[in-house]
Amino acid sequence: MRAVLEPANLCAIRCWLMARLPWPSDIDADPAQLRQHLFHEAEGIEALPSQTLIEEAEREAQRDPHRSERLLTWSWRNEVIRLSDFGTWHTVGDALPREACRRSAVEAAAFLRKFPDGLPGPQGPDRQARYLTHVSKIRKLAKSSDLLRSVPLLSILAAERDQRGREECEALRFSCEDGSHRAIAMALAGHETISAWIAY
């Protein structure tokens, strides 16, 4: 186990952990309650000791060794980036088609606006259901976009070099390490930028 990490790496790990927390299913109708919930969860993650954060990132290696390596060994910086410079995962949640994700989060949001009720063309029922589930999630995030932007630990994670998950997609300055849904939601809500921790 690593004994010490740079503060920026620890911040990136905290954001990654925050994004993994599920929202309570009964909280959506009350913005004040959602705000209280998110800030409470953020406080808990901020209070985690560095060794716990390191252990969580090392445990991720069993599922995604590339992400674990980046969280633990790459350099990270925090800045606001343009959503038009940010490429989502090539099939967000294995639900959006490559056509929607080939370019930036802005174009992905435009695809959702164009096809809000289902994928175009002949599709199997499972694929349509998966698409609609993820569209619903993105719309929910878009509805709460201003609140999400006020929680620093909900910054997305982006990679500036050695990008992955963008096979056969347009080359952009940043690729998604974690946060495709949030990025598309911000674009869907009309925002042009998003806070990001960037691995470089």
Your description of this structure?
The protein is of the alpha/beta class and 200 residues long. The chain has one domain (7-199). The protein is 48% helix and 12% strand. It has nine helices and five strands. It has helices spanning 7-20, 31-46, 50-59, 65-73, 98-101, 105-114, 125-143, 145-149, 180-188; strands at 76-82, 86-87, 156-159, 174-178, 193-199. It has a five-stranded mixed β-sheet with strand order 1-5-3-4-2. α1 crosses α3 (50-59), α3 packs antiparallel against α4 (65-73) and α7 packs across α9. The longest helix has 19 residues, at 125-143. The radius of gyration is 17 Å and the shape is globular. The model has no long low-confidence stretch (mean pLDDT 92).
The number of helical elements comes to 9
Mean pLDDT: 92
Strand arrangement in the largest pleated sheet: 1-5-3-4-2
Regarding quaternary structure, what we see is single chain
Strand count, sense and closure of the main sheet?
A: 5 strands, mixed
User: Count the strands?
Assistant: 5
> Structural class, judged by helices and strands?
alpha/beta
How many domains, as an integer?
1
Shape: globular
| SSE string, helices as H and strands as E | HHHHEEHHHHEEHE
- End-to-end span in angstroms? 23 Å
- Gyration radius, to the nearest Å? 17 Å
Strand proportion: 5-15%
Estimated helix fraction? 40-55%
Low-confidence stretches: none
